[in-house]
Amino acid sequence: MLYNDVYLNAFSYELPEEMITTDTLEEALQPVFRALHFPNGQLEAMTGIQERRWWPKGFKVSDGAISAGRKALAALNVNASEIDVLLYTGVCRDGEEPATACRVAAELGVGPEAILFDVSNACMGALTGILEVANRLALGHARMGMVVCCESSRDLNEDALHRFLKHHDIEFFKWNLAIFTGGSGAAAIILSRDPNLGGGHRLLGGSVRNDSSRNQLCTWEFNRVKQTFFEQSFLTDSVGVLNHGVALGIKTWHNFLKVMNWTQDDVDKIISHQVGIMHRKTFLNALNIPDHKDYMTYPKLGNIASVSLPLTAAMAHENGFLKKGDRVAMLGFGSGLNCMMLGIDW
């Protein structure tokens, strides 16, 4: 999977103002911690996450995507009418119908001939959207495209806290721990065939792999409890996701280097999906990637699902970690299991 003349021109992001510390969550979980004989600080020790953000109650994720999209357009000084395809790629959506992309496009002022739709691929959503737009650009079906996403962890965390106080057993804790790694935020990416627009970061190619037999390791469902009442169910086999995800990542990494005609040392920087301390440490060790090549956002922002990778790229660029000419590997992972790695000449 190789590309010519496809560029990632802008990365932008939006963060909620409300910050929730892990200490705050642990304080709410004290009855559970006492029952399980957990010391204070256990949640942060297991995840490496110190804090995360929450949107206000009743917040529409399309509003976050709209804000990030406006920033991306302003950064390039282009009009939304120039966008030929707009994809919304978040796990969280405004509703089942219509596509959240439609409201985002309407508020941004995207023209009536643009293609609009949602992409659902767990934490891989933004990378999947980049690939979809890149293919349209490469085929000449579009001149400029936008990928937007927004995630909100507030309702999921508050619902989980309520359920945790009813279940003081270790099995429930193990399957539901990953809920408290979640954060909130929004991101937008603009792609085109113009190397002189904005950053003009050239998309070189990439590799994808899946292990669909592991599709039950991480699930988020809505289950009917009563006739008109549904309850969220978010279950994660964290050990299984880690072990099988790393195995899939190793296969994808070796194929990625082969496709890109790169050696391990040719990769200057990596931008990866943000999960937590154990996932980062295990993955970097398995791929033999030194710490200094990776940029972290999870300690202060948590796991923002589809938003994590593009937001991390935007912050890494903003803070001077990514420099012109760097060969950058974007490493995406999502429940399913799916893995995608993209190579970029920054």
Could you walk me through the main structural features you see in this protein, from its secondary elements to its overall organization?
With 346 residues, the chain is α+β, with helices and mostly antiparallel strands. The two termini are 18 Å apart. The protein is globular and about 60 Å long. The longest helix is centred in the C-terminal third of the chain and has 23 residues, at 238-260. The protein has a nine-stranded mixed beta sheet, sandwiched between helices. A two-stranded antiparallel sheet has the order 2-3. Strands 9-10 form a two-stranded antiparallel sheet. β12 and β13 (338-345) form a beta hairpin. Helix content is 36%, strand content 25%. It has helices at residues 22-28, 30-36, 42-47, 61-76, 100-108, 125-138, 154-164, 170-176, 238-260, 277-287, 298-301, 308-318, and strands spanning 7-14, 18-21, 51-54, 85-88, 115-118, 144-151, 185-192, 201-210, 218-226, 229-236, 269-272, 327-334, 338-345.
Mean pLDDT: 94
Structural class: alpha+beta
Specify the overall morphology: globular
Low-confidence stretches: none
Total count of helical runs of at least 4 residues: 12
Count of DSSP strands: 13
Radius of gyration: 20 Å
| Secondary-structure element string | EEHHHEHEHEHEHHEEEEHEHHHEE
Report the biggest beta sheet as strand number plus sense, adding barrel if it closes.
Answer: 9 strands, mixed
Question: In what order do the strands lie side by side in the largest sheet?
Answer: 5-4-6-7-1-8-13-12-11
User: Residue share in helices?
Assistant: 25-40%
How much strand content do the residues show? 25-35%
End-to-end C-alpha gap: 18 Å
